[in-house]
Design a protein that fits this description.
Elements: H1 2-50, H2 60-85, H3 93-96, H4 98-120, H5 136-159, H6 164-180, H7 191-221, H8 227-265
Helix pairs in contact: 1-2, 1-4, 4-5, 4-8, 5-6, 5-7, 5-8, 6-7, 7-8
Length: about 270
């Protein structure tokens, strides 16, 4: 009888563990679904901000109002995600599930940083109002990625004849380069994600050099070659750099996810 009771106790314990794992996986799936929605809508917001370069001056206020509505919708999604994370009442869940939602916060901050440049001539990220914790590494990653979007902004604006935007982009990129070049990444994240952050930051001078070359070609060679031919000659370089950035972003997300999973396992 004692052996039978011990066996029943063991089976009961495993059932408790199985239920806990099922609850964990259900919450993780719910968080992943919500974070994917935030990530997709943040990418759409980036596209909406880029459209400002194509609009006439009288169309900009209405478009900015639509962008603000999209930001409010994203903040609502982030608040819903925050409620899911705090549902159990365990504060550690916020960081336990960070591998599942950290990427969407970085994408959201990148879109906000690009909008800040479009409206205020500077690339800046702010403390999110939705209550979700955002570690310094995510802010740095978003700021670095936003410089690539500013490069695209300059290219789109130049193609639309708004050459003054190139000078704005150069000034903002120089400020971010000066700011991030003084940072010490040690202690912000794991060694492998530090490497990913460093690679992101190393691309900032490349973006600045590309925009400066664009301005040089337009102002000094524009009289020799039509603007559309200059833009066509640089589009291949821009597209290749963009593909490298997308691949780097996916690799960085994988590294961050693996690092957190290994941390929980340890």
């Amino acid at each position: 009888n004692g052996q039978a009771m011990n066996k029943e106790d063991i089976l009961s314990s495993f059932q408790v563990y199985a239920q806990a794992i099922d609850r964990f996986n259900e919450r993780k799936e719910e968080i992943v679904i919500k974070s994917r929605r935030i990530n997709q809508d943040s990418k759409k917001l980036v596209y909406q901000v880029h459209r400002l370069t194509e609009l006439q001056e009288d169309q900009v206020p209405a478009h900015l109002e639509q962008i603000q509505q999209d930001i409010q919708a994203l903040q609502t999604l982030c608040s819903e995600l925050n409620e899911i994370l705090h549902r159990s009442g365990d504060p550690s869940d916020v960081w336990r599930f960070h591998f599942a939602y950290g990427g969407c916060l970085e994408e959201f901050n990148e879109a906000v940083a690009l909008l800040c440049f479009a409206r205020h001539d500077e690339i800046a990220v702010q403390e999110p109002p939705h209550g979700l914790p955002c570690p310094p590494a995510a802010f740095i990653g978003a700021l670095s990625d936003a410089t690539g979007e500013v490069r695209r902004w300059a290219a789109n604006a130049a193609a639309c004849g708004k050459h003054q935007e190139i000078q704005r982009a150069c000034g903002a990129l120089r400020n971010v380069r000066s700011l991030l070049s003084t940072l010490d990444l040690r202690g912000l994240s794991g060694p492998r994600y530090q490497k990913t952050l460093r690679e992101k930051m190393d691309r900032i001078p490349q973006h600045l050099q590309w925009v400066e070359k664009l301005g040089y070609d337009i102002h000094l060679r524009g009289s020799e070659r039509p603007i559309h031919l200059l833009m066509a000659s640089m589009s291949d370089v821009s597209g290749a750099a963009g593909n490298d950035e997308d691949e780097e972003e996916r690799r960085g997300s994988d590294v961050l996810g693996k690092r957190d999973v290994e941390g929980r396992g340890g």
